[in-house]
Amino acid sequence: MGLLDSEAGKKRLLSIEIPIIERYNLDRDKDYQVKVQRVGGGLVLRYRLKPCHNVYELETRLTSAYPTVPPETRVLTPLKHCPHLLEGQTLCLWRQGSTRAASRWDPAKYTCIFALQAAWRWLACYEVWHETGDWPLPDAR
Hints:
Strand content: 15-25%
CATH superfamily: Ubiquitin Conjugating Enzyme
Number of domains: 1
Helix content: 25-40%
Number of strands: 6
Order of helices and strands: HEEEEEEH
Distance between the termini: 32 Å
Number of helices: 2
């Protein structure tokens, strides 16, 4: 069953996720607004971020298991391989593959916009790493 197929999923989207995306987009330049697309039983958010010098194209997938399972964010703009970049240019944000108890994602606290903010921070770290060779935040444990 997909995110959009369950009553709980629809309720979360209508009462939490869509309103927060609308607030995020409110006074943002059109080029940096989040665009929402339905894909199967989930949603794909497409957007641009500019944490420092470069502009990056990204997508965040809210899969059928969202919000219990964290969103998956990947960068569409080609990146150099770095220590915190997973296969398919997926960002290492929530300890993918970890158990729910060990994951830093908490569906009671976080929304898809939190995932965008985490991606922005990851990209800022990436730019520092690209210039210095050092990742500026501690590794996930």
